Amino acid sequence: MDDLSEYERQRLRTREHTGRWREKQQGNFEALQARVQQLETIARRMREQHTPSYLQLIARTEALMPQNEWFRMQLLMQQTLNANLLAHLRALDPMGFDSRLYDMPFVFSHLWRNIAEVEGIDLSLAPDSMELFGWTLRASKLLKPRYVLFDVRKHIELHQAQFSIGFSWHALMDTSTFLSLSESFRNHHVVHTINGDLAVIYFEIFDGTSSRQSYLLVYRHGNVIYHVGLSADLVSSYAVLAVRHMDDPQGGYFHIATGQQRLTSASPDEEATRKAQMHLLMQRRWEQHMDLTLEPLAPVLR
């Protein structure tokens, strides 16, 4: 190599480089030939007669293709609907109350559970506890621990049940009328209504020193309006009431309010008397508002 000229050495290096390149190309060509043979083998197998299980798989795949396309279209429609709904939701005012109050299964679960409680109340054998302007109160705390059960009723001669129940619903929805039913009521607000027969109401109860938040679920069904009072935690109910308006064939109608209220103080006897009388006074105030609002019927001569 030392005796070679620069030109000869360059030619030698070129031949070596060309030889290595040819060897590399030959290796690539052989690898490509092997890959082609593999693909030809696969293609030849695909042209051969398939097994029954493979044919079944092909048939199932072809059968599911239309269903898959239908699901794809449904997904696209749902995505479009969600996008449109999101655009509308952004334009709405934010909810000022707990989102559970707008959840119908949550609201109905409280209603049905508590309605069953109040439907079984029967104080027909209990003595009258108090009378006020024709209203009769029966109450007992012996039938259910930590609760006072009450029955407030009156035969109202100068009104009819259908108008009375309509006014009762109005009294629940109207802030001024609702707050006038008790000195302890504050900050009445109708959260929302459904089909005109179910409503969620927010209000506060003032105990003389402070106010506590409360919610009222009201449901009108036929001639009955059910009331369920929920605590601020939306877990427990503190009061349940069913107000019935029943026409009397002889004239007027029977106004019957039965319910239960939870007792929380260390003196349950005094608290039971106070809360039962509170419901009596509320019904009396309700009657006064109805007399001022609805035109009375002509008295029935008997």
Q: Return residue spans where pLDDT drops below 50 for at least 5 consecutive residues.
A: 298-302
Query: Per CATH, which architecture of the domain at 104-293?
Result: 2-Layer Sandwich
Radius of gyration: 41 Å
- Share of residues in helices: 40-55%
Helical stretch tally: 6
How many beta-strand segments?
Answer: 9
Please indicate the percent range of residues in DSSP E strands (runs of 2 or more): 25-35%
Mean pLDDT: 86
CATH class of the domain at 104-293: Alpha Beta
Helical/strand content category: alpha+beta
Structure description:
By secondary structure, the chain is α+β, with helices and mostly antiparallel strands. 47% of the residues lie in helices and 26% in strands. The protein has six helices and nine strands; from the N terminus they run αααβββααββββββα. It has helices at residues 6-47, 52-91, 104-119, 161-173, 175-180, 268-293, and strands at 128-132, 135-140, 147-156, 185-194, 198-206, 211-221, 224-231, 237-247, 253-262. The protein has a nine-stranded antiparallel beta sheet, sandwiched between helices. The radius of gyration is 41 Å and the shape is elongated.
